């Protein structure tokens, strides 16, 4: 089951980025060339879409595009367009910045999750909801593409580099690329986050059942292997936090501006071109923000509960805090080795307890239940400003 989940995320990433994960059997030179080609490809895609929008806005005013002179509609249109451009840019930027790290990340995650089971029903529900987002986003993409095509065909663009037919294709491609990147971001954040939490939970259970007990002999060699696995889990957590922080910013930005799109539709008396009102998108945007807030809150709370469990177990067992105390008091060599093993466990346990794994938006704000009112408080002032501007423009007629 874990391999299926990992492969689903990897395939989604390959579709989105073309080739973000490399084969483990490739040589370093092959990986370097593949990484270079991938970065050039992403740079080319970015230049293509940026050039397309520059071509449109260089030769056409926003007033001509929308068929309205209202400044409030112009501002709303630019904000909505940025929801696609910025969110897509952030997700692809993460892929470029962590190209090499993604390969080792996926390999390590697949190795450490070999014998791991997702234990709680809540975690399974989060994963099921993440996969259910895929058809929803696909429906939204089709609705937006069909609406934009009709507006492009009926709007007289002035283009010098791109042809009118190519403009239609590029606009469709941009919507597909943007929403495929969002699909990948949701799967990456949720599936990999749940798997890492499950691996950490298994480490806690192993610690409690095998190493936090009465010691009568020196620990066997598997303890060294266990320490290596713990170090691997910490690396996974750190890299996941860095990458998912960028993804969180992208998906929250996209969802927040689509809330703005819906509120604009409710307060506007006429339909603005390129601002399609999709009820599927409106509902999804609200659900997505609440979903990510609940997911971040659950992951953080579950991690802290497991850490408290380790802390309580350490207090009950009474592991040594200093290695020298035991060797000063004990002359028996075998008993001294056993006490040294206890001290090694104590050091590792103390390090694990100091971990503070939480989900955040690039360390700007933590992802928890407070995210939902934060997004609302960010949208409302902007919406009030647009509403007042629209009222002023209507009164001036």
TrEMBL record:
The chain crosses the membrane at residues 32-54, 75-96, 125-145, 182-200, 239-260, 272-299, 370-389. It comes from the Eukaryota. Keywords: Membrane, Transmembrane, Transmembrane helix. This is Uncharacterized protein. It comes from Allacma fusca. The lineage of its organism: Eukaryota, Metazoa, Ecdysozoa, Arthropoda, Hexapoda.
